[in-house]
């Protein structure tokens, strides 16, 4: 059975190459703004800003 609650799955997309590299959980009640994290992109081979994209 699926979990019920405020947590949702989201994908993080690289700003430079537009590839989805990470899937993370986010609590909708505590963080209502979209996520912007500096993470490592394996395609660009450097740390870039990753933005939130909805996952199914």
From TrEMBL:
NCBIfam families: PRK00504.1, PRK00595.1, rpmG_bact
Protein's UniProt keywords contain Coiled coil: no
Pfam families linked to this entry: Ribosomal_L33 (PF00471)
Superkingdom of the source species: Bacteria
Keyword Ribosomal protein: yes
Protein family (similarity comment): Belongs to the bacterial ribosomal protein bL33 family.
This protein's UniProt keywords: Ribonucleoprotein, Ribosomal protein
InterPro entries: Ribosomal_bL33 (IPR001705), Ribosomal_bL33_sf (IPR038584), Ribosomal_zn-bd (IPR011332)
GO MF terms held by the record: structural constituent of ribosome
Source species of the chain: Candidatus Roizmanbacteria bacterium RIFCSPLOWO2_01_FULL_37_16
Gene3D superfamilies reported for this sequence: Ribosomal protein L33
GO cellular component: cytoplasm; ribonucleoprotein complex; ribosome
Record protein name field: Large ribosomal subunit protein bL33
Biological process per Gene Ontology, one example term: translation
């Amino acid at each position: 059975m699926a979990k019920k609650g405020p947590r949702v799955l989201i994908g993080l997309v690289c700003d430079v190459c537009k590839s989805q590299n990470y899937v993370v959980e986010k609590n909708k009640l505590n963080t209502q703004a979209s996520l912007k994290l500096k993470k490592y992109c394996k395609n660009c081979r450097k740390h870039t800003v990753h933005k939130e994209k909805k996952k199914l």
